[in-house]
Amino acid sequence: MEIKLSHPEVREPLVFRSMKEVIDWAQREYEFWSPQRIASQTNAVQNYLSHAQRSLERLLTAARSEESTETAVETHLKSLASTLQFLSTGPRGQLLTSLRELGREPKALGIALGAFLNREEIRNLVYNRWEYVFDTIDALSAIAVFEGGGDPQRLVTLLHAINKQQEEWSGELATVKNETANLQQTNEVALKRLNEAISAAETRANGLANKFEGEIANVRKKFEEEFALRTPMTYWNEKAKRHRKESRRYRWWFTGILVVGVAVLSAIGYLILFPLHEAFSDGVLGTDSFFGSDCCLGVAVTNDIEAISGAPATF
Hints:
- By secondary structure, this protein is mainly alpha-helical.
- Among the domains are: 3-147, no CATH class; 285-315.
- The chain is built from 9 helices and 2 strands.
- It has helices at residues 19-32, 43-64, 70-83, 91-101, 106-117, 119-128, 133-147, 152-282, 287-309; strands at residues 3-5, 14-16.
- The chain has a two-stranded antiparallel sheet with strand order 1-2.
- Helix 1 runs antiparallel to helix 2 (43-64), helix 2 (43-64) runs antiparallel to helix 3 (70-83) and helix 5 crosses helix 6 (119-128).
- The termini are far apart.
């Protein structure tokens, strides 16, 4: 058995002399292009890895099947050559291997593979996702040296320089993270103190509010008790005021009636006595005649008293 696989990535065709060699090679390629080892950050990388995995799975199934023939396996190998654009043993595969050996993350390998497949997607990726800037610089630097035709030693030197720079950036980033953590801790302590102060203020305010409500309740209670005691006093005071008011009114009425009565009596006396005074003054009634009539009146009265009593009347 001898099956040959011609591929643009290798100068000499790959020769398989047994099904085991086909299975081992397909298994290595399957593990190399695993999405767990090369992150698919773009559509081109995702499609490439997906097609490569399915093609290699079909090849492995055909090589492991006892019913498959050499012709069927060769057919799968030829179709795989058009699907699997890059081989793990080719130059681009070796570049990805070097990045992996330098400790690059799967996303950096995915960016490098994406730059081989579709650089426009890589440009859009780094434009929209700033967290991929360092990985993109790392991957594109390696690809630039590779495509510039430099020797492998220059590529390794560049990769190590990039690795050293990344370590420095990582140190600075760690310092910034520590400072950020310290600031965050300080902010948390300040926030805790602020919350405690707010809680204490709320407690104090609630205490003052309760105290104020208690004082208001005491004032209300005292007022209600005093009002209950002062209610009869208020009633009798108001009644006394009404009596004083009525007595003043009656006193004014009495005074008015008295004044009017005195005036009337004075007028009547004046009307009766004034003509008599005028008469005496003018001599209309003589003194003798006036007293004579009085004497006669006195004799008559004396006689009547003696007749009734049977004894002489004494004056």
